Amino acid sequence: MKTHILFAALFFSGFAFSQQKSDTLKTKNIEGINLKKQVFKKQSDRFIYDVASSPIAKGTNTFNLLKQTPMISSIDGKTLKIMGKSEVVIYINNKKTNMDSEALIEMLKNTPSEDIQKIEVITVPGSEFQVESNDGVINIVMKKSRNNGYNGTLKMQNEQSYYNNPSAGASFNFRKDKLAVNTNFNTGSWTEREKYRLSNGDSTFRNESYGFNDDPNKNFGGSVNIDYEINKKQSLGFTYNMRYNKSFNSILDITNIQNGVLKNRTVNDEDAQTRNHSFNLNYEIKTDSLGSKLTSNISYLWFNRDKSSINETFPFIVDENNKYGAFKQWVPQIINNYAANIDYIKKTTSGNSWLMGASYNNTKTDNDTRQEIYTPNGFINDFAQTNHFIYKENILGLYLTYERKLNEKLSGKIGARYEMTKSNGEILGKTSFERNYNNLLPFVNLNYTINPDNNITYTFSSRVRRPRFWELNPARTYFTPDNYTQNNPFVLASKYYNQEINYMFKNAFYANLSFNYVEDASSQLPLQGSLTKPVKDKNGNIIIGSDGKPQMATTKFLRYIRTNYGNNKQLGLTLGMNKSWFKEIWTTNYSINLAYAMYSGKVSEDPTSMPVPGQTEVLSPYIVDVKNFNFSAQFNNSIRLSSKKDWFLGINYFYASKSKMEIGELGTRQSLDLSVKKIMGSWTFLVELYDVFNQNFNQINGVQPDGSFNNVTNFGYPRIFSVGVTYNFGNQKLKKTREMKSANDAVKSRT
């Protein structure tokens, strides 16, 4: 508790300290004020973090730099998040990145921070951005130079958690007159270990499961970017990205207890591998000297995930209702996407802008799931869980945005995006559906500069969240035979309405008030139920009772299904600051996020359930009725330890209070991270310790009005000790290739 009070005191004292020194700064060190560049500022619809003027942007990589950027956080070291947002979409030089999320993170970790000019954080993206739900955008602007030559980066890193996980990466950039080539490659071998404790039931029944999952992975990926300047007005570019991941012998070992009695042990052995290839051809032409330009793209994406597993249950006590059981499962997924888009920006002599464009996406997913169950005579096909699901989707999008500066203090943007979606899915030989919908998505942004120290902005946006392709594939992923996740091809797209009011003071302190409303909200909800079916003997024959009827047995199950449940509303307030102290020896990036959430709805059926004749399934309705206040805080500190600017100490702390969601109450999480960085010319050495006290893990407790409960504890051994070495070579002022927007970027996040 003392730690929390201390950090809060440091945060709010920053506001008071700035106010007290205001008059003094006006009369002292005038030359320093005139020459000092603003590191963090608000401009129109975005926050701008001037990396080149920041003291922490030396000798690190882009991913670590993003973690130190105001309003951005990374709790697990694998993903990035904007405070109060669902997900983050990465743009580079105003163009959406052309790679999947894991490959993107590896690219960011292998890009030197010295290549970055500035980072733009857009909390409510305009109509010209291809995003969904209430996603935010991070736009990374690279430094530019016309110098010929080459440069590159070599990096090695070793992480020690429960297992030792090494990785390495390299990038190479080359420019000769009109030709620029950029390549990168990364590889790694790591094993993730997670510990589980699960419980569910009601007043008459209690099931407990505990165990672990060891998931070994081998990964390599890379990209090639070629950019050719035809003349001063025209450029042609080509991009290829690939990623391969192999995870064989992933073991999930779970022990099950029912009503206090040790029942059985379930072991799931899984082999999986993922291949991802994407191609993009880009053409750009500048149409005038004011900055107007036309950009077009055509893209192709091929995604293939093969997954097979065998799940075995070993009873501790053998009886008619507790026998050895096993099943095999094959869950492949193939995605083919063809896409094209064209965008035009028209600049006027008065400084206004018109942005317009069109996009088209054609996607087909093929999911041929097969399941076999064990019998004394061998494995036989399980017809109920075997399905071949084909999904086809066509999306046509059009947008128009007008941006205008009304006077020196007032500016704004208004626009709309119109999306037409036609889709159909078929489980061959079983069922099919067709879903067509049109969405008009308006956008408004008003920015008012009260004076040089005060700025206020209002933004409204509407978006759609389409289901991820893996969510639509009607396959199951098993913890135990009676505890599993179920995907749902019938889940509907959700409609989001987002509003924000932002206030910025002295380009250092900010407040962000947001309200989000979601129609047809979806989540993965735990449905509890019972399945009654005939009892079979060891030969698979139904046992007939003395009354001449089949003997029946009832088992309880817990099924996590992705489904629509109703609506949700969220009100959020973020308070933050980014400021350097004591001649930039100490740099602080603090933020506090307050939120009030309301979730409401009900789920009483499973549209994917098709019981076998002779079996009866009963589901308990799941009620969503949540009203909850929660808060989180992040305090990042970078301390320069030497006057030569070659030693740095990092002290970062994250805290999240208990928060209620659709699935239940998520427990308190916190993490203290420490780092030491040493710069020696072209070499950078970085030692990091994440989550010193092992407190950043998920614990969820859910209780329904009828008394049924579901609890999940997932401990991923978050304490990590990491050592990294980076070497930069060549001409560091070399201009990189143009970062090109891919036409199929809109579907990449859904794989």
TrEMBL record:
It comes from the Bacteria. Residues 1-18 form the signal peptide. One of its GO terms (cellular component) is cell outer membrane. It holds the Pfam family OMP_b-brl_3. Its main location: membrane. Residues 286-727 form the Outer membrane protein beta-barrel domain. It is found in: Cell outer membrane. The keyword Chaperone does not apply. The keyword Membrane applies. Keywords: Cell outer membrane, Membrane, Receptor, Signal. Gene3D superfamilies: TonB-dependent receptor, beta-barrel domain. Coiled coil: none annotated. This is TonB-dependent receptor. It comes from Chryseobacterium piperi.
